[in-house]
Amino acid sequence: MTTSTIDQLVSDYLGRLNQAAYVLPADRRADLLDEISEHIASARAAGAAADEAAVRTLLDRLGEPEEIVAAARDDESTRGAEPWHAPPQPVPVAASPTLETWAVVMLTIGSVIPVVGWLVGVLLLWMSRRWRWPEKLAGTLIVPLGPGLLWFLAVLLPARSESCSVSGHRDSGGAFVQGPMVCASSGPPVWLGATIAIVVVLAPIAIGAVLLRLAHRRARTEPPVMRTPVVVGTAAGSAWGATEVAAVVCLGVGGFVVPLVGPFVGLVLAWSSPRWTDREKNIATALAVVPIFLATLVFVGFLV
Amino acid sequence: MEPGRASNTLSQLRRGVLEFCVLSLLGDESLYGFDLVRRLGDVDGLVTSEGTIYPLLGRLRREGWVTTAWVESESGPPRRYYSVTSQGRGALAAFAEEWRRFRDSVDRLLPSETP
């Protein structure tokens, strides 16, 4: 056994590899030659190539140079272009009455946005699958316009006012004799106004609380929703499809283009989105309040 | 079935699975090329040509599933140590789960071993 025979075997092998690897891009070819050379050097350093037979075994185990280059080309063309990814598996998510919560919020607090806020609430109310129609009807008809009705009552009803008049007559001498002062008050009495205000505010809150409890109870009995987690950065998992873009456009500027109807369409689109999670739908709805409010102001200003 | 067909199928399967075997071996410790390749080569029926593992390692590195670092060696030239990245771990975990399902399903369908 001689070192030169071993060296000869190794250099022959690397020469063949070098030759075969010309089909590879230059950097891949250099990498491959480096790594195979290193492999052989490591084997020799570890004593795994002490004699000619051991070196032949080592090179046999490495395989034919053409075979290695073919594997490199395969990696280059087919596998390299398409790294393996497990498809995202749907995970169970407990059903939560998010839509219903928003409906109740809009029917009560949201109704301070005149007309529109309450109408949004009604829309969400009727979109829900967790309420039956009598419940929806109650939610709609118990104080139409919700607490926001107070705006209209304040404008439409005459303010309570008091007027007094003094009557009198002239006596035989022509002097004015003042009669008793008569006072009369007009408009609804105070107790009535206060009662109406309390009912208008409290009744929607009360029915809202009942509806919310029903929704929560029914959501708990539902099976968990299977939801596929969104993989950031992959086309399939994108949170933006035509529905979502349309929803944002309608929510953002729809109110200025088609008053009242525009934001409605936006909300329907947002809540029917297959891509958005409940959290994203919540964010969209919350953010939409500002443009809806502004659009309503513009609309009302235009009417007046 | 002709034997060539079976071996062709198996070699394709082997090639597809090999990269996850690499990730799995690197899961416990960083290994240098020769050591890693030898361990894979010693597994029965997994690798026919050990040299083909290097192009695979190169691809795993480009995909960011594996990183390399040079480490001085007492008994020779510096060695390139391979270790798995967190991305590689994620890919391995996902594959391992799918693989078990796949393996069990195929095992159920294939005729059981004859004694």
Overview of this protein structure:
The complex is a heterodimer of chains A (304) and B (115). Chain A is mainly α. Helix content of chain A is 62%, strand content 9%. Chain A contains twelve helices and four strands; from the N terminus they run ααααβααααββαβααα. Chain A has helices spanning 3-20, 26-45, 52-62, 65-79, 98-107, 116-127, 133-141, 149-156, 190-221, 242-257, 261-271, 278-303, and strands at 91-93, 161-170, 176-186, 225-227. In chain A, the strands form two sheets. A two-stranded antiparallel ribbon of chain A has the order 1-4. In chain A, strands 2-3 form a two-stranded antiparallel sheet. In chain A, a hairpin with a 5-residue loop joins strand 2 (161-170) and strand 3 (176-186). The longest helix of chain A is centred in the last third of the chain and has 32 residues, at 190-221. Chain A is rod-shaped and about 160 Å long. A three-stranded antiparallel sheet of chain B has the order 1-3-2. Chain B has helices at 3-26, 33-41, 53-62, 86-109, and strands spanning 31-32, 66-71, 79-84. The longest helix of chain B has 24 residues, at 3-26. Chain B is α+β, with helices and mostly antiparallel strands. In chain B, strand 2 (66-71) and strand 3 form a beta hairpin. In chain B, 27% of the residues are buried. Chain A binds chain B through residues 28, 31-32, 35-36, 38-39, 41-46, 61-65, 67-68, 71-72, 74-76, 79-80, 83-86, and chain B through 15-16, 19, 32-35, 37, 41, 48-52, 54-59, 62-63, 73, 75-77, 79-80, 91, 94-95, 97-98.
Key terms:
heterodimer, A: 304 residues, mainly alpha, two-stranded antiparallel sheet, 12 helices, rod-shaped, B: 115 residues, alpha+beta, three-stranded antiparallel sheet, 4 helices, 58% helix, globular
